[in-house]
Structures are given as structure tokens and as C-alpha cells.
Amino acid sequence: MNQTKYIFVTGGVTSSLGKGIIAASLAKLLQARGYRTTIQKFDPYLNVDPGTLNPYEHGECYVTDDGAETDLDLGHYERFLNVPTSQANNVTTGRIYLSVIEKERRGEFLGKTVQVVPHITNEIKDRMQLLGQSGDYDIIITEIGGTVGDIESLPYIESVRQLVWDLGENNAIVIHLTLVPFLAAAGELKTKPTQHSVKTLMESGIKADILVCRTEHELSQEIRSKLALFCNVKKEAVIQSIDASTIYEVPNLMLEEGLDIVALKKLDLPKKAAPDLKNWNTFLKRLKSPKHTVNVGLIGKYVEMQDCYKSILEAFIHAGAANETKVNVVSIHSEYIDEENIAEKFKDIDAILVAPGFGERGIEGKIAAVRYARENNMPFFGICLGMQMSVIEYSRNVLGLADANSTEMNSDTPNPVVNLMEEQKNVTDKGGTMRLGAWKCEIKPDTLAYKIYGQTTINERHRHRYEYNSAYVADLEKAGLKASGVNPDTGLVEIVEIENHPFFIGVQYHPEYKSTVANPHPLFVNFVAAAVKARKK
Ligand code: GLN
User: Which of 129, 243, 431, 476 could be joined to 481 by an S-S link, Cβ 3.0–4.6 Å?
Assistant: First the structure.
């Protein structure tokens, strides 16, 4: 077996420079040249995973097939590469410490003093090489969260230093992503922050092999030479990453800059074929020259922060391109919607998506939104909590159960049409205890769901504790709310829909996690198509 090669991506100067997108873009290029590539992310915070984090803190929690609650960058990896990730692709400091401390309690350190170096760093290094040892990949890209110089990143940086040393220079390289700011008053791009950031890296014993420089303006040859000289890299290894109109442009920009070629050279790997980006570029072309426009209302309570609904927004980009349609996602805060103002709020909206969520805040607005879409024949798509809200709305306004609710919102409701799953009743810990990951769903024939998926058995990812209460399914079916998809083993209702409506579907799972550039999710594709139709009317 060939030696697995490692690329580490560190960040400098500021956070939010888009390490995840650079890592995903490089991986895309390497994959398009024929290398089996994956990406993993190491996060420096102490939560064991982001599952317990409020979305305002850290954006969306991304869920993998194996039920890991992970950083949203894993979503980018999957969307770019179209290869599933898993728990092994995302490790936090909390997970590292938990595992080391558990080993200590089991007595595995044989009386030794347990220390950051070597015990924590060994644990980090083991996990950094885990996917590489599977033999499934030629190249592993590891993104180190945070910024060089942060106290909490130190053990990771030290582990990278050791690993580059252990593996040898041609088997492990470091890409440092920095910012080259433009000072308007001086009319100049400034290299000093990058120089300092590279110096900080060097103080930890790491020499950057490649610099990727985020910039708002083109880097001149002069600036490139200066960066090369001061930062101890070859000029060809100074890569410009200029602001792009869409993240999906970045692989092409990196190709133009030769990032993949420089990385392969440093890793002593052949270029193989020129990257095959045919399908990718077809997608980009459709994305950039849409024939239609639609306004989709995103009804949620975290709408102030775009990252909270990352996968949904990206799924709309994929589905928009598939329909040659520009999808304007209009964020509408569910807390401020009521029966009185809804017509005004929805006047320019062609279709609505009611978002996932937890807790009571904003749910009456979500229910009002479902009702409006149902009564006005507006395309409706409910995800997880959004689906549960459609069950409540139908129970209240069609079945006449005025007090119907979810026990998540009102534990004493006389009509708990959505209630806690049986298996959740004795769960007290919050971390990693929801119904998570991929579960099977059987779709009934002659349903909208079947028309959309074109198959009877599907696998979708989940993240919830509550479910559509089976005691109410028969009555609601009779009243017109069809259960069109169920879990074959437990009978849990996964999909609801209503007939005689242009498009009304609610799903207990999260289809957005599985939408990629190569495989736009059929639910989103069909929902956008329904929105285009609705707008024409
Ligand atoms: N709060 C709901 C539940 O736990 C829905 C969760 C979600 O939307 N992801 O079932």
C-alpha cells in the first residue's frame, strides 16, 4: 500500500477566512485528478461535539450518516466531494481530553503523570492518522480550527509539528491561510500581518509550505515576491485567494493559481490527469445564468445568523442551479409572524420552508405560516420541527383539536399530536442522545414523496427527540394529512403530505444534509420547481 499523504491547513491573522472552503476546494481538485481524498476538522473547543451548542454560538450542527453531530465545515466537505464523512472526520479538544481522561481512569498510563505533551498530543496524532490508516484514502487534508497563536490551538499545532517530523517532509505539508488586508487610506495591500502570523507558526516549529492569501484585490508580482521572501516559501507557493461571488467558484480559482500542483509537488506525487471538472462547471454555469427567479420564505427563529441554516441555504443553491432558477431565500423571523400580519409579510413570497428548531420560541409563527401556505395553495416544505408544526396546524385547524400541541412546547397538552419518542423517555444527558443519523424510510406508492424520490426505500439523516404521535395518525389521515413515508421497523411517520395542494410536504428528517453539487436533493429540486410554477401563476 502506498503511504497516505497529509496536508494540514492552519489559519492566521483572523478567523472566518474560509479554511473549510480552501480545504474543500483543494480536495475537490485532487479528487478531480484521481486522488482518493478526504478532509477532517480538529476543533479547539472543550465541548465533546457541537451538538450541545446553541446555533447562535457556532452555526448549524451538521449530522453525518453515522449519527455524529459535527462542525458545519463537514457539510462543505460533503457538498464539494460528494463523499460521506463520519465521526472520525471531526474531533474536538473535548473529545480528546475525554478519551485521555477515561484512559487514565482505566489505569492505562501505568502510574505515569498524564500531560499535554505527550499524552494529549499522542491522542491528537492518533486521531489525525485514523482515516489515513483505513487505506481508503491517498490524501488526508486536516483543517485545524481557530487561529495560530490561540492558547487553545497550541496542542494541535504541536501535534502537527511532531507529525510532519515523524512522517517526513514529502509525506506531510502545511498550508497556512492568512489575510492580506487592503488599507484604503494608503491604497495598498499589506503583508505585515501575514509575516507575523508565519513567524508565530515558526515559533512553534512549523514552516508553512504554502501560503494561501485571502485578499480583496489582486496580489501583484511584487507582493508575491515580498511574501515569498519574508515568509520563507517559494513564490509559486504564494497562492492568491481573492473574494469570489460564490464559494463554488473557489476550486477554479485555486486551479488557476496552481494550488493543487504546488501541493502535489511538495508531496512528491504525480499530477495524474488534468482535473475533470466538467460536471462542476456545468453546475456553475447554470448557477450563474438563471432563467427564472423565485422568492422562498425561510421561516425560522435563528434567521439573524446565516450559518444557522447553512445546509438549507446551500441545498437551495444546488436545487436552484438544477432548475436554472435564482432562489432568493427571504429570511422571515417566526417570532414576529401572526395571523394579522402574515399576508403582508408573505406578499412577495412564492413558497415557504419552515425550518428545524428546538423549544417554544417562535412556534406559533411557524404554525401560522403552515396554515397560510396550506390555505393559499402556496408550496410548503417543512423540515423536522417544520414538519411537526404542520401536524399541529392540521390537527388544530382541520381536525378541530384547538389545543393540539407538541409536548416539547406544552407537556400538559390534552392533544399531544407530537410527543417524546418512547426511547427518549429515560434520557437525561443532552449530548449525543437524540435520534441521530441515517434511518430507513419506506415510501408509499401514489404519493408526492414517491413521485419526488422515484423509489420506495430511502435513507435520510435525523436529529430529533419528538415524533408524530401514532395515536393521531389514523384520524389525521382521514382528515387528509397523509403519512406517505414511515420507518419500516418502528412505524414512526417520516413524511406527511396533503392531496389537492400544489406542493405540501413535511419531513421528520433533514434532507438538506445530503444535498451536494453532484447530487442536489430531490426534495429541494422539486420544491424549487413548485415555487417556479407558483410564481408564474
Ligand atoms: N425539537 C424537535 C425534536 O426534537 C425538532 C428537532 C429539529 O428540528 N431538528 O423533535
Answer: 476
Write phi, then psi, for 437 (nearest 5 degrees): 85, -165
Whether 14 and 197 have beta carbons less than 8 Å apart is answered as: no
pLDDT in tens, 85-105: 999 999 999 999 999 999 999
Residue 18 labelled as part of a binding site: yes
Q: Tell me the sheet residues that pair with 171.
A: none
What pLDDT, on the 0 to 100 scale, is given for residue 15? 86
Is 244 annotated in a binding site? The answer is yes
The catalytic residue among 462, 467, 512, 521 is 512
Which positions ≥6 away from 151 have C-beta within 8 Å? none
Residue type, position 389, single letter: M
Can you tell me which residue has the cell 437524540?
Answer: 434
Instruction: For ligand 1, say whether the CB of 466 is within 6 Å of any of its atoms.
Output: yes
Q: Which is the closest atom of ligand 1 to the Cα of 384? A: 8
Within 8 A by CB and 6+ apart from 270, the residues are 264
Largest CA distance in the chain: 75
Q: Binding residue per annotation — 73?
A: yes
E strand segments, 73-199: 90-92, 139-144, 172-179, 182-183, 188-189
- Could you report the per-residue pLDDT of 445-495, keeping only the tens digit for each? 999 999 999 999 999 999 999 999 999 999 999 999 999 999 999 999 999
pTM assigned to the model: 0.95
Q: Enter the DSSP assignment of 41.
A: E
Per-residue pLDDT band at 306 (split at 50, 70, 90): confident
408 lines ligand 1 (CB under 6 A): yes
Decide: 7 and 267 in contact? Cβ < 8 Å. yes
Report the chain's mean pLDDT, rounded to a whole number. 95
Q: Are 263 and 26 in contact (CB under 8 A)?
A: yes
What's the one-letter identity of residue 51?
Answer: G
User: Which run of H or E residues covers position 528?
Assistant: helix 522-536
- Confirm if 373 and 390 have CB atoms less than 8 A apart: no
58 lines ligand 1 (CB under 6 A): no
Rounded Cα–Cα distance for residues 125 and 103 (Å):
16
